[in-house]
Amino acid sequence: MDINNSVALVTGANRGLGRAFAQRLLERGARKVYATARRPETVDLPGVDVLPLDIADPASVRAAAEAAPDVSLLINNAGIQTGTDLVSGSLDAVRHELETNVFGHLGMIREFAPALARDGGGAIVNVLSAMSWFGGKGANAYHLTKAAAWAMTNGVRLELAEQGTLVTAVHLGLADTDMAAGWPVAKIAPSDLADAALDGVEAGSAEVLADQWSRDVKSRLPLAPEEFNDAMDRALAALTAA
């Protein structure tokens, strides 16, 4: 797929990764960029078409699909992290993360799949995380949602192959955004993450490992669970001590 002359829709485009995606799409020649946010007045990027969207609200998702029937590239970026554990944390918070990070993305795909089919297939980018593959105290609800979103991405890729839709999973460690502001470690620039993802779309890639951290974590998946956990403990300790 060629980004130039595409019609893209980006969720969570008012800041962070979403804003970077919208900006790089414009700079790379997209014909139209729908920039969506729960509070559309917070979208400040010139040249985009602003739409209100709450991906956890099916009616809002349906309205966005009706307002943007010409989309050829869907960027599922919006997400939340509540800092909740699975056993001791609020079950309502766990459900809220699942509704947003999994069912929100799936709802977008279900509503926009017909438009992508009309365009000849188009493409979907799901912004996931290296935490698709590992958890940690204070972030296990997030790990659950990203692991489920990874499985969902793999499933819809198979289901949409017949209509020619590319589904690209993008994994990263930490990006230099508000969500990662409390981590004094090396982070990928949002524009670099957006470029890596869009390069992957143009190359027809099913998966993009956007930084060294995501590549390192995935390389450890063949290990036994105990070995994997030990390796991740050492890696996290080294990361925070650097």
Automatic annotation (TrEMBL):
<dbReference type="InterPro" id="IPR002347">
    <property type="entry name" value="SDR_fam"/>
</dbReference>
<dbReference type="InterPro" id="IPR036291">
    <property type="entry name" value="NAD(P)-bd_dom_sf"/>
</dbReference>
<comment type="similarity">
    <text>Belongs to the short-chain dehydrogenases/reductases (SDR) family.</text>
</comment>
<keyword id="KW-0560">Oxidoreductase</keyword>
<protein>
    <submittedName>
        <fullName>NAD(P)-dependent dehydrogenase (Short-subunit alcohol dehydrogenase family)</fullName>
    </submittedName>
</protein>
<dbReference type="Pfam" id="PF00106">
    <property type="entry name" value="adh_short"/>
</dbReference>
